[in-house]
Amino acid sequence: MRYHLRLATVADSEELFRIHRESMTPYLREALGEWSDEADREQHDEWFRQGRAHVITVDERVAGCLDVVRKDGVLWLLRIELDPQLQGRGIGSAVVTDLQAQAAAEGLRMILDVFSGNPARRLYERLGFRETGQDGPSIRMEWQPVR
Predict the structure, then answer these.
(1) Exposure of 136 in the CB half-sphere (CA atoms within 13 A)
(2) Contact, 52 vs 7, CB < 8 A?
(3) 3 state SS of 8
(4) Which distant-in-sequence residues (6+ apart) come within 8 Å of 42 by Cβ?
(5) How confident is the model at residue 12 (pLDDT cuts 50, 70, 90)?
(6) CA 88 – CA 48 distance, rounded (Å)
(7) Which helix (H) or strand (E) covers residue 28, if one does?
(8) pLDDT tens-digit profile of 90-102?
(9) Count of domains in the chain?
(10) Rounded-to-integer distance, Cα 81 and Cα 17, Å
(11) Which residues contact residue 28 at a Cβ distance below 8 angstroms, ignoring those fewer than 6 apart?
């Protein structure tokens, strides 16, 4: 499935928050125990103010968000969240595979964190990411480009 990326605008914040809540709340509660709506809102607003949020669109519909940072020879995949109604259609695979191609072209490795109970972990493993440790309730995973 073909997707497009664009920088998020203020008008996207509520839709991205909805997608975050629907896609991540079960994993946040599992990993962190008690999880409040207020804490979730505060974290979303802080993340959104950083100006790195990108919107993933499919057929001009908001499908999710992406946050990537290049730092110290690493492409950090900080956030990829997809609307649960659109999961399982290859969008996440396409986005991550394209990021891997960019990282390889730049000679960068990729790092991400994923909650151990999140099924996205299997996607990352299929795409060549390997577990390198834990960071709190998350599994740290790394991908190295073939040299």
Answers:
(1) 8
(2) no
(3) coil
(4) none
(5) very high
(6) 26
(7) helix 13-32
(8) 999 999 999 999 9
(9) 1
(10) 10
(11) 35, 40, 115
Task: Looking at 57-145, list the stretches that DSSP marks H as alpha helix, in order from N- to C-terminal side.
Answer: 91-106, 120-126
Q: Which residue has the higher pLDDT, 137 or 127?
A: 127
Q: What percent of the chain has pLDDT over 90?
A: 70
Domain that holds residue 59: 4-143
Identify the burial level of 14 via C-beta atoms within 10 angstroms of its C-beta, where 0-12 means exposed, 13-18 middle and 19 or more buried: exposed
pLDDT number for residue 33: 67
Residue identified by tokens 């990282």 is 103
Tokens in use for 64?
A: 């999710």
Return the structure tokens found at 137.
């309730």
d(Cα 110, Cα 70) in Å, to the nearest integer?
9
Q: What is the CATH number of the domain that holds 133?
A: 3.40.630.30
Residue 68's pLDDT is 97
User: What's the pTM?
Assistant: 0.90
